[in-house]
Specification:
The structure holds two protein chains of two kinds. By secondary structure, chain A is α/β, with parallel strands linked by helices. In chain A, about 20% of the residues lie in helices and about 40% in strands. In chain A, the strands form two sheets. In chain A, strands 1, 4, 5, 7, 8, 10, 12, 14, 16, 18 and 20 form an eleven-stranded mixed beta sheet that branches. In chain A, strands 3-2-6-9-11-13-15-17-19-21 form a ten-stranded mixed beta sheet, with helices on one face. In chain A, about 50% of the residues are buried. Chain B has seven helices and twelve strands. Chain B has helices spanning about 40-50, 70-75, 95-110, 115-130, 150-160, 180-190, 230-240, and strands at about 1-10, 15-25, 30-35, 55-60, 65, 80-85, 90-95, 140, 165-170, 195-200, 215-220, 225-230. In chain B, about 45% of the residues are buried. The chains are: A alpha/beta, B alpha/beta. The interface between A and B is medium-sized, with 22 and 30 residues.
Chain lengths: ~425, ~250
């Protein structure tokens, strides 16, 4: 990818501390990426998501722009602390936080905790993670101090709009939830443009012991975009993660998720909802690692696929030898609204312990004609009957969002999506 | 109110109804009896507008107008209601929401103001009492986790809430214990009015002990083999359907 080579020196963080260390980390990551190049159909883990077309394209970093008022339309979540990025640039004036939280730029984090950054930048099997390390141009570190309860959600908005040429962003978000703390963080990607752009995000989330986190990731990038993401959760002793992954945007979306249940009593509940239409491709590749005993994990991913959309789910739960008394559930359900839509689901279990409770399942179906006739026979029109059924299918995943303002936001987006999805007889 | 003229219908090419004639007037209760496979449910479903059947000839007039080309929702809005033999479970759709949407669609069609949440709850609580249902059923998904009897009561709840002019009860009595049967019968009696009509499709005479049918028809092999008064049901109970076979 020539454009990356050309642009790497323009990375706003390239050599940010004027030491050669980071530069060499970035260059090493780029070398690592170049050893294998972009994944194509011949890569087993990427066979349905072919991003080799990025080779023939060209993206640049966006131009620095500071805005003084929120862009329109703005995806507001009521009563939250907003952190706003516009085309990859942090908008300090539009952002607010609380003193229970520390916000650092990635270069500050490097100065305070170089080992962490070294670890993140070290070679990875996911080529896009290596690209992110090489090209990193935006992002933040959010640290919730120990024993703090943050009631208002932190809403990070990565807004893309008003661009003249195809841009790319390689954000790195690091989130650290201190011992005994509780927080809700919304990691939000939102686009309002017809131009092509590319988001290649990496998020590292660590829950220190006894903490709990609601992590809501909303991918509402413009349909002209490509969105690739790698999200890693590390759960220490007696921690609780509730995660929700929502995707309705981007023409091609690939989300890798790694959940590491590192210590006794960690619990992860994760739901996902993909709303896909036209020729969108939404691909989740999830690995849940049960490393120690008495951990639980739950996953429920649903796809609503219209037109010629493609939904891909690859979920692997690995229960290591030491992870006795594991309780793991995984379920994926696809609803096809159309004959041209398709779904590939591949749930897998790898169990090396003997005292465990594990289940997984996958279903793919269409709307139940009996249910539609039932509703119509009560006077509910054809379209409303469809909307109610699809909404009923999708809304189950939203139950994991306990904050009512976030829940309302996602619910509204779901209703809007349904209203604007062609349902015909 | 309902006039069925020489109705013939097929499903996947197989003829199920072979020329049905039936007239139902305001204020009347008709019972249609017959064995499994005689075409009773097909008849009910065709009146309600299910499109998996092909009507090959004949007509159905409702208030003197043919309804064969009307959608199921149009028929419902005009006052036709079918209580399902097997009420459908609708996961994720809340029973209250469903009932309210149905009632408001009808009110809108009638040019009446739609009910808000409070007004609706007021109304539905009274209706729940009539069918002996607890309020918790309102908060579940439609028929989700309901027992057979609860599903049938839910059908009657929908009927007395939507107040149709023509109610077709497709084996609403099957699978009910005696108490449930009484409650369902009471719901139907409660609904009965001079400007309404009811068609009960059933295997058994027992529900007819609680409801007075004006006419009883026996359906055999897609045709009405015999019509009569209540005494016909009693004769059937005694002699079985074999009595009418040729």
């Amino acid at each position: 990818m020539k454009f990356l080579e050309k642009e790497i020196k323009n990375s706003p963080l390239f050599g940010f501390d004027k030491s050669d260390n980071v530069k060499s980390l970035q260059l090493d990551a780029f070398k690592e990426f170049n050893r294998y190049g972009l994944p194509d159909k011949s890569w087993e883990d990427w066979k349905y998501s072919d991003f080799s077309l990025l080779n023939s394209m060209s993206f640049r970093f966006g131009l620095r722009k500071n805005i003084s008022i929120l862009p329109y339309p703005f995806p507001e979540i009521k009563d939250s602390n907003q952190i706003v990025f516009f085309n990859g640039y942090y908008q300090k004036d539009l952002s607010s936080t609380s003193d229970k939280i520390s916000i650092e730029t990635i270069d500050q984090t490097y100065k305070e905790n170089p080992e962490l950054i070294h670890k993140i930048f070290s070679p990875k099997t996911n080529p896009f993670h290596n690209i992110n390390s090489a090209m990193i141009n935006t992002g933040l570190t959010i640290i919730i101090h120990d024993n703090e309860i943050i009631n208002e959600p932190i809403h990070i908005i990565n807004y893309t709009s008003d661009i003249d040429e195809p841009i790319m962003n390689h954000p790195l978000f690091i989130m650290k939830i201190g011992i005994g703390s509780e927080a809700s963080i919304v990691e939000h990607y939102y686009g309002s443009t017809n131009r092509e752009y590319w988001v290649n995000a990496v998020t590292k989330i660590e829950l220190q012991k006894n903490s709990s986190l609601n992590h809501i990731r909303l991918q509402e990038d413009a349909n002209s975009s490509y969105h690739i993401a790698d999200t890693e959760y590390i759960l220490e002793k007696d921690t609780q993660l509730s995660a929700f992954h929502y995707a309705s945007g981007a023409s091609s979306y690939r989300q890798n998720i790694n959940v590491n249940l590192n210590d006794i009593g960690a619990s992860s509940s994760m739901n996902g909802l993909c709303l896909s239409k036209v020729k969108q491709k939404h691909d989740h590749f999830i690995t849940v690692n049960h490393l120690k005993e008495k951990c639980t994990s739950n996953q429920l991913f649903k796809y609503v696929l219209s037109d010629a959309a493609l939904g891909i789910f690859n979920g692997r739960v690995i229960v290591k030898k030491d992870a006795q008394q594991t309780d793991a559930k995984q379920s994926t359900r696809n609803l096809l609204l159309n004959d041209k839509a398709a779904a590939h689901s591949n749930p897998q279990l790898e169990i090396y312990a003997d005292d465990v409770k594990c289940s997984h399942g996958s279903t793919t179906g269409q709307l139940d004609n009996n249910a539609i006739f039932y509703m119509r026979s009560r006077g509910i029109d054809f379209k409303t009957a469809h909307l109610l059924l699809v909404n009923g299918f999708a809304a189950e995943t939203l139950k994991i969002i306990s904050n009512k303002n976030i829940n309302k936001y996602v619910n509204d987006q779901l209703s809007y999506w349904l209203e604007n999805t062609g349902i015909t007889k | 109110m309902l006039e069925i003229k020489n109705l013939k219908a097929t499903i996947k090419g197989k003829e199920i109804l072979k020329g049905i004639n039936l007239n139902v007037n305001n204020g009347e209760i008709h019972a249609v009896m017959g064995r499994n496979g005689s075409g009773k449910s097909t008849l009910a479903n065709i009146i309600a507008g299910r499109d998996s059947y092909d009507v090959t000839s004949g007509d159905i007039l409702y208030n003197n107008k043919s309804i064969l080309n009307d959608t199921p929702e149009d028929r419902a809005l005009e006052g036709i209601f079918m209580s399902f033999q097997y009420p459908v479970t609708i996961p994720g759709v809340n029973n209250t929401y469903f009932l309210k949407a149905a009632l408001n669609a009808k009110r809108k069609h009638q040019g009446k103001a739609e009910l808000d949440a409070v007004e609706f709850l007021d109304l539905i609580r009274k209706k729940l009492q009539i069918v002996g249902m607890e309020e918790k059923y309102l908060h579940r998904a439609v028929n989700d986790g309901f027992s057979g009897g609860e599903k049938k009561r839910n059908e009657i709840l929908q009927m007395i809430t939507l107040e149709p002019t023509l109610a077709i009860l497709d084996e609403t009595d099957s699978g009910l214990d005696i108490d449930a049967l009484k409650i369902v019968a009471e719901g139907v009696n409660n609904y009965r009015q001079d400007d309404r009509a009811i068609v009960i499709i059933t295997h058994y005479q027992r529900i007819l002990r609680h409801l007075q049918a004006d006419h009883v028809h026996v359906l055999i092999d897609g045709k009405i083999a015999k019509s009569g008064g209540e005494e016909l049901a009693e004769t059937l109970e005694e002699k079985g359907y074999g009595w009418l076979d040729n």
